Amino acid sequence: MAPPGIGSSSQPYYPETEQVPNRKITVLDGGFATQLSCHVNDPIDGDVLWSSRFIATNPEAVIKAHLDFLRAGADVIITNTYQSDVDLYAKYLNITRDEAYNLIKKAVELAQIAVKRYQEEFPRNPEDGVAERNVAVSTEIPALLERNIVATSDEFRAPLGKGNVAERDVAISDEILALLGKNNLADQTSTNDLKNELVQSWSKILQEVRPLIAGSVGPYGASLHDGSEYTGSYARTTSAETMRQWHLPRIRALIEAGVDMLAIETIPCSLEAEMLVKLLKTECPGMKAWLTFSCSQDGKSIAVGEDFKEVARRCYSLNPEQLVAVGINCCAPRLVEPLIKGINTMPEAKTTATERKASGRQDEHTARIPLVVYPNSGENYDVEVGWIKRDKCEPVEQYVSKWLDLGVSWIGGCCRTYATDVAKIRNEVESWCRKNKEVR
């Protein structure tokens, strides 16, 4: 039996209510500061550095919090960098800017350590996931085979490295090598180029069998410590260029440290969102990301008051090549459905990226948007007493099947959701996937 976090949620499923070709359901983690509180005695809420202080003061607790989510079944963990800021680190930890920059990179290293420990706890069975990998290979390799690549076993396996990942794929690599060996190619230079291309494709496939790490990129407003990431009020007084210069060092540090993607999250205004989507294209064109918004209580608008669906569609149209999903986070679960419902059901939103490219249309009126949601528990935060009214909140997992019916592909929790909540979300995802697989 596969360990938590491995299995059918990475399979493509096709729900009746939202026809999304090749959709994969990915389970995210939960509220990092919330889970971290299980491992530390010091207060987190109210700290100017919030949970990011513990990267410096208690790195082992950070690793343990990540591990909790992995054990609960998260396919992706998010770095503890939501409120990381080079200037704030330098000021409140009394360190240099270079040390502050490296502290952001350390957050990624701690997540990587957690993934490594998790893999050691739950080594993949050689039989586990063979079908999924063969499906992936079948979509990646045939075009290369048709171009008559030749390779030997040693040449092919050498770039794969050592350890469980390479070992458990020996059988499949043998199958591919048998196919490769049937081909002949006179041009040795071309052969080597194609072998390199094959290795890159195979490395990509191997990446997909481990939990991924998303670098948290919180909003500019989080650095102001006035709650404005939930209102977007700073958009009226802060230029996009000012925000850009603030974000750029943090994003560079995350990428240099080796994140798999970025989690651009809790963004309250289109000004900052559009700037970040464009920054991805100009400064880090090879990096994937998701984009989530902080939303208001009306079930229609992002925090600053702009229409969510319009802003989401516009942002996605600016960079569909790099945005793996657009959606919402840290709102009450009851608000998710009214916010996302209908965003991908209008006829003009049914085309794929390939179809848009073929037709020459790339605007927001033709884009089907991959959706990501990870709401909070629904509790309210009182500055005097902290989080309240948990007993009045419906469990997040009760909403999961409906969100999946609406086409959500990335799903998890935010503030006040624990690893236990992620485990329940995971169970609901697995149940939904089994049900819909049977129906289809």
TrEMBL record:
Binding site for Zn(2+): 330, 414-415
Keyword Methyltransferase assigned: yes
Hcy-binding domain ranges (all copies): 14-429
PANTHER family, per database record: HOMOCYSTEINE S-METHYLTRANSFERASE-LIKE ISOFORM 1 (PTHR46015:SF1), ZGC:172121 (PTHR46015)
Protein name (record): Hcy-binding domain-containing protein
Cofactor: Zn(2+)
PROSITE patterns named in the record: HCY
Biological process (GO), any one: methylation
Isomerase is among the record's keywords: no
Any matching Pfam family: S-methyl_trans
Keywords carried by this UniProt record: Metal-binding, Methyltransferase, Transferase, Zinc
One of the record's GO molecular function terms: zinc ion binding
Pathway participation: Amino-acid biosynthesis; L-methionine biosynthesis via de novo pathway
InterPro entries noted in UniProt: BHMT-like (IPR017226), HCY_dom (IPR003726), HCY_dom_sf (IPR036589), Hcy_S-methyltransferase (IPR051486)
Species assigned in the record: Acanthoscelides obtectus
